[in-house]
Every structure is written in structure tokens, then in C-alpha cells.
Amino acid sequence: MSATAATPRPQIARPPTAWQTGSNVVFRGLTHAFAGAVVVLLAGIVFEVMRHASGAMAKYGAGFVTGSVWDANRNEFGILPEIGGTLYTSFWALLLAGFLGVTLALVLSQGFLGKRSELVMKNVVELLAAIPSVVYGLWGIFVLVPLLRGPAGFLNDHFPNFPLFSTRLSGPGILPASLVLAIMILPTVTAVSREAMAAVPPRLAAAAYGLGATRWEVIFRVTLPTASGGIFGALVLGLGRAFGETMALAMLAGNAPNFSWSLFSPGNTLAALLANHFPEAGEFEVGALMYAALVLLLITLAVNIIGSLIMLRATAGLKGLR
Amino acid sequence: MRHLDRSVSTLFALLTLALMLVGGCKKPASEGGAPAAGSAAAPQKADEPTTVTLQGSGASFPAPLYSRWFREFSAKNPNIRVNYQATGSGAGIKAFTAGQTDFGASDAAMTDEEIKQAQDNVVLLPMTAGHIVLAYNLPEVKELKLSRDAYAGIFLGEITKWNDPKIASENPGVKLPATAITPVNRSDGSGTTFVFTQHLSAISDKWKKGPGTGKSVNWPAKAAVGGAKNDGVAALIQRTPGAIGYIEYVYAATSNQPTAILQNKAGKYVAPTPEAAAAALSHVELPADLRAWVTDPEGDDSYPIATYTWILAKKKYADKTKADSLKALLKWCLADGQALSKELHYLPLPANVTEKVSKAVETIE
After folding, report:
1. Per the CB < 8 Å rule, is B215 touching A146?
2. pLDDT over 80 (residue A8)
3. Which of A167, A315, B34, B233 has its CA 20 to 30 A from that of A263?
4. In angstroms, rounded to a whole number, what is the distance separating the alpha carbons of residues B354 and B126?
């Protein structure tokens, strides 16, 4: 205590105390440990899933991915319809949410609205992410499906030969599942692409305006291309979420183990299959389910890797701007 | 200042703890002072402050009844607590075999192999019974009769329209619409599915050779959709015109859903009343291991799809107080508890059955 009073050195030039260096080392160690823990956790999950799946992998091999019968009674397992259903519902959801989300992000980032209403809108969209999956599922069953039945019946009556409308919508099916899925991934797509658009340096837009560009031209020739990497990232994130979404799809896709191109036919997804069959699965079935989980993991991983690669290429030309 | 804050909060925490302890001690003392009439069967341990907790998990079909039973029993015997998780029959058997729970519950009893896995240390106790109904969604049809061929055909996917002659011929005077039939099944593995497919296998050779019997099967009908749990199926039927699906009677009774009148083995058409289901049970003699399925009951007044549901207990428990508490609980369920069954739309066990099951309960050590 008296030592500090005796030395008039300014505090800022003081060498770090042992406590400061110590806590620095500990803090750095902690951050490394936690970062490492994430990797270890992922590796652990993959390892555990593979360990349980190994029996089924050896037994069913590639036939598991190409087979289309899931019959626990006869220990016959194939997940082709589920893979198809996962990709098909996610495709429609992404198409819809991508279009809606990017449009919304434009409105929210380009100063079309006042600052205040922008903030309100942004929060409303992000609030969609806070609604539990089950509630989406119930909303789908009790509100969306009855609403869709009329138009779906009309389309089926008038265009029965068009592959997308070739069956009747009895209740749950691909269309309600995809629509609800689109709403569920909308906040992710909107929030991330809005960030990307907001991050476009204002001087770029200012320069374009200075050259006499219209607002339309600035948005479509400058802002969107510059933000394209981020927007693409938003779509990949959204797709990842769509692949893994479980509860709402288990309630709305119909849980029927067959795949059809018709939007109105019931289908199934990998995540819904896992959720439905795990609690009561016997020994063989658990192995098969783990195998299915592994396939889902691989699909998601593949999509993410492809997405990152495309993003790298898309943003490569914009390096100097950042 | 910091120090003071901390010591104040510590003091507060200690005080709360002390209060909780005092409150906790008081309760058993006051309960012990006023002997409740219903606690006669319970082990006399009112002076001991320790409570016994019994863990159980399994079938979801009897879960509403079980939780009511266990709540009422614990109210009368405050030193015995019962936790029951409705995880589904399969998961219940697994947890019980692995020793994670003190008792299990299953709609499909246990297979010989499962009993072997549990080192044969298991008693199967039928506790209550229920029946499965075919609920349908045809707003203009008040009464629907389905022959054995008809309902097997619907779930096989052979009958796809409601005005199919196979349905129409049994329902003269009923205007059946030309809408498509949407069969609704359970998407999750379930004891209900087991009982229903077991019945279909018993009445239809084609079903037996095709999908067969199981907690989840490969549903053959092209138009079929699946819902999770009984309430998921019930919601789908309610929301889908032209749908028909199998659910526990409780779920149809509480939601006032119309249910089909089914043809039984004797060829008679029987409505799914609790009386008709009880009649079906009365035609089955329980064997020594108390494992009997009512796959296709005899008798003119029997409703065709009924089943017992079992609690799985160990023959020998390592913990004597646990065994005694469980015995007290099961005895109470078999005696006083049966009156509650009817109130909750389950079937009370016939007297000769409760007698047999009570004897089995006595063997638990």
C-alpha cells in the first residue's frame, strides 16, 4: 500500500503484475480449451453415432440408402424415401424462404422504412425463430392444412397429370410441411442476409449514385452482388436448419414411407423418422436409426462444404472492398 | 461492502434452509398423528422421516390412469412417492431390464427373449385393460358398420373409397360418400399398434403374411399417413375428411369422435362400449405367467380389439423396503384403484383376474 504512494510512476506505464499475466494465461488457456471442446464434442458425437451404426452399416451397406422399405419386424431397413423427402421439402422451403427472406432483408436494410419501423419489423421476423417447433406443427395441422385443402383439390382436379399436383391432399403432406419449414427458416435467412447487406460499404453505393445510377441499379448492380457471399451463407444456414428440423415435420409431412413428386402426397424425412422410431426401437432398429442419422449428418456436411466453396469463389473478387 | 452483501445472502440462504427443514419435519409428524383409513396396507413407517421413491416408466396408454392411481396412493401414503414416465412400452422394458427403474409398464407384456434378458427376474402383472376403436371422419355418416374383411382391407390399402361395395353392403340405408379413404396409423412405435396389428394378423391371412404384428410395421396402404402418439392420430382423424384410424377408446370417448361398429369372430356387429370390451376379456383365461392376448375373442357380445396392459415388477428386489412399498402400491391399485378405471374410461379387471394378479403380487420379495 505504502509502496504505491512512494513511487509516483503513472499507472499506465506499469509492467503487468503477476496477477495480470497469470489471468491472461488462464484466460487464453480457457478460450483454447473451449474452442477445442467444440471440436472434441463434434468428433465424439460422430464417433458415437458411427460406433452404434457400424453393425447396421456392415449388414446393409449401400442398400440402406437405396432401399425404400422400413420394416422393423423383418429387420429390413432402407431410407431412400426419407432422403428424398428431406431434400424435397427442404428444396421448396429454401426456394420460398430464400425469395421472401432476401426481399425482406432488402426492405429492412435499404432505408425503405423509417429507422423505427425497420427495428420493429426486424424484431417481428426474428420473433418467428422463438416460436417452438410444436406450435408450428399444430398451426400447420389446425390452420394451414384446412386452408390448403381447397386450392390443392382445385389444382388436382384441373391438372391431374401435372406431376406436382398428381395426388389429392388428404391432410398432412409435402406442401404444408414445406410451407411451415419455409416460415421456420425465414428468420435465419432474413437476419443473416440483412447483416450482409448492411455491411456493404456505404461509399460503394455513394459512388454509384455519383455516377448517376438509379436506386434500382444501385440495389441490383452494387448492393446485392457485393452482399452475395453473405446472402449465400444465409441460404446455406437456412438449408442446414431445414434438414434438421424435426418436430413440425413429424407432425406435418405425413410419416408415410414413400416418396412422390406430388406436392400433395404424404412423405417422410430423416429427422422425423429418427424422432418417431427411436423411443421404441429394438436393438437392430437402433443401429439402423444411427446409420440414418449418419446419412443425415453427411448430407448436411456435404451441403455446408459445397456452400462454403461457392461462397469462397463468390467473395474472392470482392476482397479489396472489405 | 461486497463482504457484507455476501454474508447477508449466506445468512438468508441458511435461514431458508432451516425453514425448509423445520417445515419438512413437521409434515410427517402431523400425518402420523391422524391415522388415515386408506394407509392400512402401507408399511408402518410414519415415525421415520425417510420416504421411499419408486421409479417406473413405460406404456403411455395406461399413463393417465397410472398417474391418477399413484397420486391418490401417495396422498394416502405420504412416505411412498411414485414417479412414472410415459416413455412408451419398448423404452419402459429397456429401462426396467437395465435396472434404471423399479418397475416397468408395457402394453405388449414382454417377449420370452426380453424376459430372458431380464434374467428371468420379472413378474408380469395385468393392471388394467382397454380397447382400441376405429375412429373415422365422415361428417354425414352417424353409424358405420365394418366387416372383418372391410377394416382389414382398408388398412391393407385394398379398399380405397368409402362407397366401396364391401363397406356399402353392410351399411344399407347409409349414404356413403365417394371420397378417398385416408388410413391413419401411429408413426412411432407403440403398444397400441402391436395390439391392433396382432388382431389384424389374427383375422386376415394377408395381413399376417404382409405387414405382420409389431410395435411398428410397414403400413401397406398407399394413402396412409402417420401421427405421433394417440393424440396425434386423433388430431389427424379429426382434421382429415375421409380418415379412419385406430386409437385407444379413451381418446375417442373424451373427444366424442364417431367410432366404427366392428364385426367380431361370431359374425355379430358390436359397438365399442366398455361392456363389450369387458365381455371380450371374460373369454380369455389367464395362464400362470399372466400373459394372455385377446387377439380375436369368442362370444356374440365381444368387441374384437381389447387388451390387458401390464406392470413389470422384479421377483426379487435388493431393497426390502422398496419391495414392500411396491407391493403395497400394487395391492392398492388392484383393490381401491379399480374403481377409478371406469371413471377414466379403462376397463376394470374382472374379479377372478384381480384375485390371480394379487396372488402374483404376493410373490414379490
Report:
1. no
2. no
3. B233
4. 8
Residue pointed to by grid coordinates 403398444:
B191
| Closest-CA residue of chain B to A70 | B218
Q: What is the ipTM of this complex?
A: 0.78
User: What does the block give as the cell for B234?
Assistant: 386423433
| Candidate from A73, A168, A250 with C-beta closest to B228 | A250
Supply the pLDDT for residue A38.
95
Query: Which site among B179, B225, B240, B255 would you substitute to test the A interface, given the most A Cβ atoms closer than 10 Å to its Cβ?
Result: B225
A282: pLDDT confidence band, cut at 50, 70 and 90? Answer: confident
Rounded to whole angstroms, the Cα distance separating A295 from A289 reads 10
pLDDT per 10-residue tile (average), chain B, 365 residues: 48 47 42 40 50 89 90 92 86 88 89 84 91 94 94 95 94 91 90 92 94 89 88 88 92 88 94 92 86 88 93 91 91 91 88 89 89
The Cβ-side half-sphere exposure at B267, using a 13 Å CA radius, reads 0
For residue A59, pLDDT beyond 50: yes
Burial of A87 (0-12, 13-18, 19+ CB in 10 A): middle
Reported in sequence order, the residue ranges of chain A that DSSP labels E, i.e. its strands, are 70-71, 76-77
Beta bridge partners of B83: B55
| Length of chain B (residues) | 365
Are the beta carbons of A171 and B243 separated by less than 8 Å? yes
Residue numbers in B near A275 (CB within 8 A): 228
CB contact under 8 A, A272 and B187: yes
The Cα-based distances of A200 to A110, A117, A191, A206, A228 in angstroms read 11, 21, 15, 11, 10
Residues B237, B243 contacting (CB under 8 angstroms): yes
CB-count exposure of residue B314 (10 Å: 0-12, 13-18, 19+) = buried
Of A70, A73, A170, the CB nearest to B240: A170
The residue among A184, A176, A182 whose CA lies nearest residue A96 is A182
Kindly report the pTM of this predicted structure.
0.79
Grid cell digits, residue B173: 340405408
| Region class of B46: left (phi > 0), else alpha (psi between -120 and 50), else beta | alpha
Strand partners, B145: B261
Distance CA B244, CA B162 (A): 10
Can you give the pLDDT at residue A11? 64
In angstroms, the separation between the Cα of residue A168 and the nearest Cα of chain B is 9
pLDDT of residue B50: 75
Half-sphere exposure of B180 (CA within 13 A, CB side): 16
Handedness of CA A47, A51, A56, A59 (dihedral sign): positive
The answer to whether B170 and B146 are in contact (CB under 8 A) is yes
pLDDT of residue B326: 92
Report the distance separating Cα B198 and Cα A73, nearest Å.
12
Cβ of residue A93 closer than 8 Å to a chain B Cβ: no
